[in-house]
Amino acid sequence: MSDDRRDLPHLLRDALVAADFTYESVAELLGPLAHGALARNETVPGLRRTRGGSPLETLVRLFLLQVPVAASEAEAALPGLVDRLSSRGILTHSISEVAARLDVRPYASERADGDRGTVTDHFWVVSDLTPGLDGTPSRVGSDHVLGISPASTSLAQLTLRGEVGSALDLGTGCGVQALHLARHAGAVVATDVNARALDLARFNAALNDVDDLVEVRDGSFFEPVAGERFDLIATNPPFVISPATGERLVYRDSGLPGDRVVEDIVRAAPGHLNPGGWCQVLANWVIAVGQPWDERLAGWLDDGTDAFVVQREVLDPAAYVELWLKDSGHHPSTGNTDLAEYHRRYDTWLSWLEQQGVEGIGFGWINLRRRDEGDTRPAGVHELLSWPYEVEQPVAPAIGAWAEAAAVVVDADSTLRLRADVRQETLGAAGAEDPETIVLRQQTGLRRARQADTVLAAVVGACDGELPVGVILDAVSQLLDLEPSATREDTLPVLAELVREGFLLPA
After folding, report:
1. 3-class DSSP state for residue 127?
2. Is residue 421 part of a domain?
């Protein structure tokens, strides 16, 4: 790489810092109205707020609102860099105006950092321009490089942030996850098959001053890391389930049938993890006619791992096809496709899903943890949960807590305590002596809820970390005139479930 290509990201970073081109400053400049409109791909409120010609306003107009700016203003915001950035393909310019060919976007994300508490990481991310601003045609090319997206943000919030020696960003795209991983990993490998994505991932690593930590490799899935193991793997693979009869969009289409790409990753990942290592996947999967989704995915899981799979959303086949045809710019509203072509694509895709026996498509998280050396359990704990409800973000600490709880053995001698945020809700007729329903509900983390009977509610309420649960069970049995041995037999397995689900903690 030439000196100019090596130095340019660092020079650009200096200019962005000088202009205070950060997420917080941009949000303050735009204000809630324009910032919210931009999130909906509408630019008019933002254009009204950025007429002053300051370097920050110029960069917002140039990169985020995607409008040309005066050459003099661009030079003031990016001193000495306009020609270099144009040669690099980030800008294009005429005598009087400069326009963006790529998106340069400030980004911020919070994470837990031990004794420091919650810290905010700041990044800049270069990617292809945002398609479809103000309703303009939004067709994207086969090698389109996606920038900050709901999917990348979701994976970032899901990924555990403890200090690790090595991490893998599988299918890195523009490198968003690699930038996150470089904040808490000693070394990061980022892989992809899209040459443009690899180029931008290297640029972004240098732009964010982590190019000494991030190694970008060309290749499909685990091929570039054959024989290597990592402490953490994060991946948002190209998981769209399609017949692949049209143009393949590399950022979302794997070229493999159905949800095979996700299955292959889940099956192969344990072989690339160090003991205690994690693989965290954001994915789609097929819900097949006549087979529960969790039963199907359970067949992918390895007994040598603990696995926590959370289905967050289910779309029917028609809604799924509509979503991704709009994403690729093949909906008539984008101005790229006429009605007949849209109907043809829609019918082809929907017919294929029907032929494949697809009843629905699930979306969610697959979290795999390779068991530690010396773990004597006969098999890993596998929990597959359908949970479409609101959760606390970032959700990563709740995933880590689940793994810790999975290894806990609960018996009569265990001492447990109720998690501080759990609340008990009772429902019933006004004035009734006993409630019809008792619900235990978490206020943080996954915010799970669980119905309880009178015995379970009494036992859980008495779990304060002082008495063994066997003593508590016997006391509740005596109070309610129940057989103690039967109460232990019935309730101890449920208490073990409450530990795994995070309602109760080992004292």
Report:
1. strand
2. yes
3-state DSSP helix/strand/coil % of the chain, to nearest 5? 40, 25, 35
Contacts of 390 (CB under 8 A, 6+ apart): 447
The number of angstroms, rounded, from the C-alpha of 66 to the middle of its chain's C-alpha atoms is 27
The pLDDT tens digits of the residues spanning 177-201 come to: 999 999 999 999 999 999 999 999 9
Task: Answer for the pair 166, 185: CB distance below 8 angstroms, yes or no.
Answer: yes
Question: How would residue 306 be classed by pLDDT, with cut points 50, 70 and 90?
Answer: very high
| Residue 420 within a domain | yes
Which helix (H) or strand (E) element contains residue 489? Answer: helix 484-500
* pTM of this structure: 0.92
pLDDT in tens, 397-443: 999 999 999 989 999 999 999 999 999 998 876 766 667 799 999 99
CA 264 to the chain's CA centroid: 19
- Is the Cβ–Cβ distance between 383 and 308 less than 8 Å? yes
| 195-207 and 3-18 helices, crossing angle to 10° | 60
Instruction: Kindly report the CATH number assigned to the domain that includes residue 444.
Output: 1.10.10
Assess contact for 175 and 201: CB atoms under 8 A.
yes
State which residues form the domain around 95: 3-104
Q: Indicate the number of domains in the chain.
A: 2
Residue type, 376: T
C-alpha span between 74 and 69 (Å, rounded): 7
End position of a domain, from candidates 50, 75, 104: 104
- Please check whether residue 191 lies inside any domain of the structure: no
Residue among 58, 76, 75 at smallest CA distance from 67 = 58
Q: Assess contact for 191 and 169: CB atoms under 8 A.
A: yes
